[in-house]
Write a structure and sequence with these properties.
Helix content: 40-55%
Shape: elongated
Number of domains: 3
Largest sheet: 5 strands, parallel
CATH topology of the largest domain: Rossmann fold
CATH superfamily of the largest domain: 5'-nuclease
Radius of gyration: 39 Å
Strand order of the largest sheet: 3-2-1-4-5
CATH class of the largest domain: Alpha Beta
Amino acid sequence: MTWFVLARALFVAAVGFSAYQSSPLSGGPLVNLGAGLVLGGLFVLLEVRLRDAPVSHMLGALIGGAIGLVAANTTEAALYWANLRDDRIVFLHSVILLAFPYLGLVIGARNGQWLEPAHLLGLFRTSAPRRRYRILDTSVIIDGRVADICETGFMDGTIVIPQFVLKELQMVADSSDSAKRNRGRRGLDILQKIQKMSGLDVTISDVDFPDVREVDLKLIELARTLEGKIVTNDFNLNKVAQLRGVAVLNINELANSLKPVVLPGELMKVFILKEGKEYNQGVAYLDDGTMVVVDNARKMIGKTIEVVVTSVLQTTAGKMIFGRFIEQGGVSATAPAAAAAAASAAAPLPSTQTGPHETGDTRRMRPTLTSTPVTAVK
């Protein structure tokens, strides 16, 4: 680092001394010396700014600038017939000499990635189906379910793991917090498992964006460059990517779409695991993690019971099912019990006595007392 500082100081001093000796400006030696030092400082500042620029972009800028100079000279040579004593023609020549190299410099720097060997070879290859890229982020790697999806063959295309995602994952694995450290190590194990899968194209991308600091924004820029899709379970990254026009494959949305569909009135068997928040509630979970809140099931904790689905609530975080446990002593929601209750309600009640002035229709309509016990409905 000391050698770089010394070299920059010597360079600025040399530019200042050259201006002092040649005196290109009117105003005395000190004015020329100051102008030379300022000019040398600007060159050093430019060098510092270009320190992190990719080599391919710098090479593209140089090639583009050279092409711009050739185009400017060619255009000026084509205007040999113009009157050079006209101030407008002189100004036009100056604009051409400045504009063409500038355009070549900017265009070459922006498209410098085409000078990379992979892109150069792609220009000479025959037209083939385009590769589809699936870019993994840190959260979906730590989650681990993406490995199961890749193993089943549902994840097509090339799996891209950016280098900056690996760096972030390593920082999590080296954290002083034991919980974060375990999550980071789990993510590294998941990546190793994905790389060992046969028939799966996995690549580590070294493409980086030094001007972008946030990892999420780097993922979006990489997806734009590769024209691929981001695989994540981060809700915020999903929304930001969609706003920027980048396609996203959300693991949580996939899991929610694969959950079984239940309708109100259906019967299902669940294991009551714990007590609910409300009075006399029990909580159960399905195999996919869906929460089932059951009324009248507090005393059935630790047992498998049959409940009736009353409603289903779909949220952005997942699905919740609400049901009710009907005891055997009460009226069940099954078809045989409901039919028996309807038949008993429709059956005529036996009469004990009739008055002397009642007709047959009056006797059929008059309510009578029976000795049949009434079962309370809970």
